[in-house]
Design brief:
By secondary structure, the protein is of the alpha/beta class. The chain contains 7 helices and 6 strands, in the order E-H-E-H-H-E-E-H-H-E-H-E-H. Strands 3-2-1-4-5-6 form a 6-stranded parallel beta sheet, sandwiched between helices.
Length: 202
């Protein structure tokens, strides 16, 4: 299980709680030397500000400060830029992860509502047969949420709800965040050591 370090992925961060998940995923992919095309919804920026305490006024400066030191490459695309490279199926990436994924974004993807770069890029993944991973973070779930997730699953989308496990003996919140990011990387066949695997003896 290994992905070339030159691989490129789209990472979406929406307005669902759990912005740290998308941040940690981005950090990890960059640390592995990959290229990340980052899209953050307007609500996603609000959650980043509220949950992480980041000053999001100068967004590109902030991203360079937070992610500029990794060996990988970060390319930021405003969510309104519907003409960005990742909006076209002719632009090659390995796949896309929306982490965390709000139920609004999940619904838009399930119903083909490509009204911004986030949902358009997800639609491109589906039409081109590329990997699309959504990490919904909502509770409780009602029937519409469940029906949309079932629809997406039947279309080949990977759904990894933000449900961290405890069998590996997490000691910190970072351990729980790393577990969820690790599960996403597992689904993409990317090697990592973010959590102790069951039966590994480590």
């Amino acid at each position: 299980m290994s992905t070339p370090s030159s691989a490129s992925y789209v990472v979406g961060i929406t307005g669902a709680s759990g912005a740290i998940y998308g941040v940690r995923l981005t950090e990890t992919l960059l640390r592995l030397g990959m290229t990340v095309h980052l899209v953050v919804s307007n609500a996603g920026w609000r959650v980043i500000k509220e949950e992480l305490g980041w000053n999001v006024t100068d967004r590109e400066g902030l991203l360079n400060d937070k992610f500029g030191a990794g060996p990988g490459s970060l390319l930021y695309h405003p969510v309104s830029d519907i003409g960005a490279s990742i909006a076209s199926g002719s632009f090659r990436v390995e796949g896309m992860i929306v982490m965390p994924c709000s139920m609004g974004t999940l619904s838009a993807v399930a119903n083909g509502t490509s009204d911004n770069l986030m949902t358009r890029a997800a639609d491109v993944m589906m039409k081109e047969g590329r990997r699309l991973v959504l990490v919904p973070r909502e509770t409780p779930l009602h029937a519409v949420h469940l029906e949309n997730m079932l629809k997406l699953s039947r279309l080949g989308v990977t759904l990894i709800p933000a449900m961290p496990a405890f069998y590996f003996g997490p000691q910190t919140l970072d351990d729980l965040v790393n577990f969820m990011v690790g599960k996403v990387l597992d689904s993409l066949r990317i090697d990592h050591t973010l959590f102790r695997r069951w039966g590994s003896g480590e």
